[in-house]
Structure formats: C-alpha cells, structure tokens
Recover the amino acids of this structure.
C-alpha cells in the first residue's frame, strides 16, 4: 500500500507534456488492460475508449478543447465515450459474453439479463445516458491509478465541447458521446506544477465517522 500512496503523491494533472517522449507499446497495453478490468455497473462497460493517434484529428480536437496543449503534446490521447440509449441489445450481448466466458448455457444467464433489462432498459433515455456517462469515470480512475504506478503522467479533462468532438470523430453515427478526455505521456521539465506540494483537505475535514 505504501507504494500505491507514493504513486498517488507523485501524480498530478500534467499541464505541459514532453512531446518528444512516447509511451511504449508494452506500457500502453498495460494501461488498456487496466481500463478493460475496471469496475462498472453490472460489469456492462457501457462505453468505448477511442485512442486517437492521427495528428490531424488531434489538432482538430484541440480546437474543441479550448486550445489546451496536452491534446497534441501528450504521447497518447484517449476519448472516453458513453453509449447512448444503452439497452436490450447491449445487455443481450453481455449475457452471451458471460455465458461464453464462463462456459455456461445462454439459458442459465437469461434471468440475470432480464433483471438488468428491467433496471436499465426501462429508464428514460436521458437518465440512461447520465448513468452510462458516470461509468466512464470509474474506468478513468483505473487509468489514472495504473498510469501513476507505471510513472506515466495522465491528465483527466472535461474542458472540451462534446458536440464538437463527437462531430470530429463521427461518434454520433456510432451512438456514442464523448464525455471525458485523458491525455497520457511524460511531464515536461518546464511544467511548474510538478514542483508544487499537493493540496488536499486534511482527514479531519474530509471524513465523517458516524
């Protein structure tokens, strides 16, 4: 646990990345696996993660993200996009995957699938979209923790116009909505924030024991 806490103290939301430093494929694979293994409601993972490598696309996204330099300077750009109007089709796909992964019959997981449908598919579309968007934050948390463990810098970003990013990447046609951005790479030595002490509330203010 001490190593985990040390990593948390080391990480910060990097504002200036060293564009000359790239994440290795092996480390990127580990970060992807950390995202894949993230917790999510019922294990449904109602989102996609788009890894944007194309420089032209990243430049366009920068204009939709208030011109922030991390978008183009970081080693990799990840877009967390929640699935719009998640429902029966996606739940049935999850049930099939569960049966296949665990060597079960599809009939044996039908009851659970029907239960999930009764809780999710019946919700109003706007409520479902809020729910699926919240799930991306769980996946983002795993990415941030895994990156810190690997001493890779990561910056979570909400400072962008989702509608513009959706249009740039054609997400509307895929029933996806960009709700989070994460830039990952290595801090530039000129980024002054890395030299400042981390500011957090003390335990006496943050926690309430009843």
């Amino acid at each position: 646990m001490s190593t985990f806490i040390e990593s948390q103290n080391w990480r910060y939301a990097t504002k200036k990345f060293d564009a000359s430093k790239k994440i290795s494929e092996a480390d990127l694979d580990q970060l992807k696996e950390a995202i894949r293994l993230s917790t999510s409601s019922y294990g449904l993972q109602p989102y996609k993660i788009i890894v944007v490598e194309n420089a032209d696309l990243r430049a366009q996204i920068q204009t939709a993200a208030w011109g922030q330099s991390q978008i183009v300077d970081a080693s990799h750009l990840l877009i967390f996009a929640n699935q719009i109007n998640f429902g029966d089709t996606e739940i049935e796909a999850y049930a099939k995957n569960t049966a296949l992964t665990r060597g079960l019959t599809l009939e044996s997981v039908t009851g659970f699938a029907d239960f999930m449908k009764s809780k999710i598919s019946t919700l109003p579309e706007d409520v479902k979209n809020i729910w699926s968007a919240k799930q991306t934050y769980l996946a983002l948390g795993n990415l941030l923790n895994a990156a810190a463990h690997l001493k890779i810098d990561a910056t979570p970003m909400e400072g962008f116009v989702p509608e513009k990013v959706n249009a740039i990447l054609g997400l509307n046609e895929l029933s996806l909505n960009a709700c989070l951005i994460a830039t990952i790479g290595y801090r530039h030595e000129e980024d002054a924030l890395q030299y400042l002490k981390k500011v957090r509330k003390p335990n006496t203010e943050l926690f309430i024991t009843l």
Q: What stands out?
A: Residues 125-149 form the longest helix (25 residues). DSSP finds nine helices and four strands in the chain. The beta strands are 47-52, 76-83, 153-157, 176-185. The CA atoms of residues 61 and 168 lie 7 Å apart.
